[in-house]
Design goal:
The chain contains 5 helices and 5 strands; from the N terminus they run βααβαβαββα. The protein is an alpha/beta fold. The longest helix is centred in the last third of the chain and has 16 residues.
Length: 150
């Protein structure tokens, strides 16, 4: 059996408010509930998941740096930093860890300022509009793409 893949899930600013924050857009589940389900789901696919949320760009960057050489794939919802942060993009490029960009909402059918992402052109994949299910879809795809290449 191959070694368990280590996946790091990173959530950016205001995602700690899920459950309370605009539930008609982001759903009723809290981030803790979503991440708990994800850890269980990943375990069933023999993947190991850790997760981190911060409202601070610097903390998010430091977390990405600390993943260097430790993590096989990053799943990131950069939240509002999607549309603003060259620094977070550069952090992901600096560690050269493949990553999947996830958004709960379909950013393309929202305000024009949400249509541009600093991440999509360097991401392995992008998922948006499936709510919290998007994180599970990313985990599922990572598990299967690994099986396909072994
Ligand atoms: C988001 C979309 C972003 O535009 C927004 O700033 C967020 C959440 C999403 O998951 O749909 O905070 O990344």
């Amino acid at each position: 059996m191959t070694a368990k893949l280590n996946i790091l899930v990173i959530n950016g600013p205001n995602l700690n408010m899920l459950g309370k924050r605009e539930p008609e857009i982001y759903g009723a589940q809290t981030l803790a509930e979503i991440m708990q389900e994800l850890v269980t789901y990943a375990g069933s696919l023999n993947l190991s998941v850790s997760h981190f949320q911060s409202n601070s760009e610097a903390e998010l960057i430091n977390k990405i740096h600390s993943a260097f050489g430790q993590v096989d794939h990053i799943i990131i919802n950069p939240a509002a930093y999607t549309h603003t942060s060259v620094a977070l993009r550069d952090a992901l490029l600096s560690v050269a860890i493949p990553f999947t960009e996830v958004h709960l909402s379909n950013v393309h059918k929202r305000e024009p300022f949400r249509h541009h992402s600093y991440f999509s052109d360097v991401a392995q994949a992008v998922l948006c509009g499936f709510g919290a299910h998007g994180y599970k879809m990313a985990i599922n795809a990572i598990a299967h793409s690994v099986q396909d290449t072994h």
